[in-house]
Amino acid sequence: MAVQSLPDGYPQFIERADGARIWDVDGREYLDLMSSWGPIVLGHRYPAVEEAVRAQAVAGDCFDGTSPRMVELAEAFVDLVPYADWAMFAKNGTDATTLCCTIARAHTGREIIVVARGAYHGAAPWCTPYPAGVTAADRQNLVYFEYNDIDSLHAAIAGIEDRVAAVIACPVRHDVRREQELAEPQFARALRETCDRIGALLVLDEVRTGFRLDARGSWESFGVRPDLSAWSKAIANGYALSAVLGRADLRDAAGRVYTTGSFWFSAVSMAASLATLRVVSTPAFESNLRAAGQQLRTGLLAQAEAHGFRVRYTGPVQMPLLTFADDDDFALGNAWASAAINNGVYVHPYHNWFLNAAHTPEVIEEILQRTDAAYAALAGQPVAERGLLTG
Ligand SMILES: Cc1ncc(COP(=O)(O)O)c(C=O)c1O
């Protein structure tokens, strides 16, 4: 992310990283709560992943044909994710979400994709949040509904049910610049039922949530399984890879769609992903990540209260967001994030954070010592005197 959109004091260039720590080009160390904006799920330079990467790099990365790692990885995903009967791979999350839409259209012969308003699905013209360079034609087959509001979905598709190829949704409402919102189980189930009723596919965009909430699929505990899903970010612990997973009867459509990229078959990132999958599929990984998230949440809320700030802590504890009450322009959030970076904690004021397995109880404790200093610094700043302090 360009430094112009980051709060004051954020470094633009990072020189190196290890575990939960990153160092900028001036040698300043930060405890990293953004995890490279999602990709780092085991910690920076996780030894088993780096070992797999080195071994694959010695054998080669980019070949005329695919490496066997691709088949091994597809099998590992199919074993891990209950609804997945096949997997295909690309590089970025946008590749995967776009591919899901294309496969859904190829399978159903329909054109419309139903999208939650404000959701981020990538940077292609059909889904970018910014209008520059986007034509009406790029969006003409999209209709919008409100997240967690099944009536708005029904209203959006009224009269066009037989033209809907897919409904795409994220497992959590993690749109930027607003509090996060967990999916209500009845909303997730109603999405599934509506798709079944109208013969459309349910696409789950796991690009941000994948491997952090439930490696089997984020709505597995609701008993809701999509037909197709898009994954990226954390699946190779920092190496460039994305995946589309799908149900058996969509294999034919997936095979008919033309899609490729010069570097999509790179074996190194697939070797990295195989090593990552081995760890994230263990119960200890999931419970430790949740416990770290809970420890951070408890500590940050206690500190806010002690320093007299009213805050909101939203989203899953593994990918939380801290915002301040009555702070619509994020002035206080920006000031707190600046104080945090000055005290050596890398966070963001309005994009969710990402915990990773290097956030051990000791590291969280160290983070909390630094955030306590950040709150203390903020309490002394003019921005905190504009009626926003409550204590
Ligand atoms: C939910 C979601 N979908 C899709 C994308 C696009 O992924 P990428 O930036 O790798 O293209 C992102 C990226 O942040 C995302 O958060």
Structure description:
The structure is a single chain. The protein is α/β, with parallel strands linked by helices and 391 residues long. The chain folds into two domains: 3-32 and 283-385, Aspartate Aminotransferase, domain 1, CATH 3.90.1150; 48-280, Aspartate Aminotransferase, domain 2 (3-Layer(aba) Sandwich), CATH 3.40.640. Helix content is 37%, strand content 16%. The chain has eleven helices and 15 strands. The protein has a seven-stranded mixed beta sheet with strand order 4-12-11-10-7-5-6, with helices on both faces. The longest helix is centred in the last third of the chain and has 25 residues, at 283-307. The site of pyridoxal-5'-phosphate (PLP) has 13 residues, from helix 3. InterPro entries: Aminotrans_3 (IPR005814), Aminotrans_3_PPA_site (IPR049704), PyrdxlP-dep_Trfase (IPR015424), PyrdxlP-dep_Trfase_major (IPR015421), PyrdxlP-dep_Trfase_small (IPR015422). GO terms for molecular function: transaminase activity. Keywords: Aminotransferase, Pyridoxal phosphate, Transferase. This is Aminotransferase class III-fold pyridoxal phosphate-dependent enzyme. It comes from Dactylosporangium fulvum.
Give a topology summary.
Blueprint: E1 14-18, E2 21-24, E3 29-32, H1 47-59, H2 68-80, E4 86-90, H3 93-108, E5 112-116, H4 136-139, E6 142-145, H5 150-157, E7 164-169, E8 172-173, E9 181-182, H6 185-198, E10 201-205, E11 228-231, E12 242-246, H7 251-256, H8 267-280, H9 283-307, E13 311-314, E14 321-324, H10 331-342, E15 345-346, H11 361-379
Parallel strand pairs: 3-15, 5-6, 5-7, 7-10, 10-11
Antiparallel strand pairs: 1-2, 2-3, 4-12, 8-9, 11-12, 13-14
Helix pairs in contact: 1-8, 2-8, 9-11, 10-11
The structure holds pyridoxal-5'-phosphate (PLP).
Pyridoxal-5'-phosphate binds at residues 92-94, 97, 120-123, 170, 205, 207-208, 232.
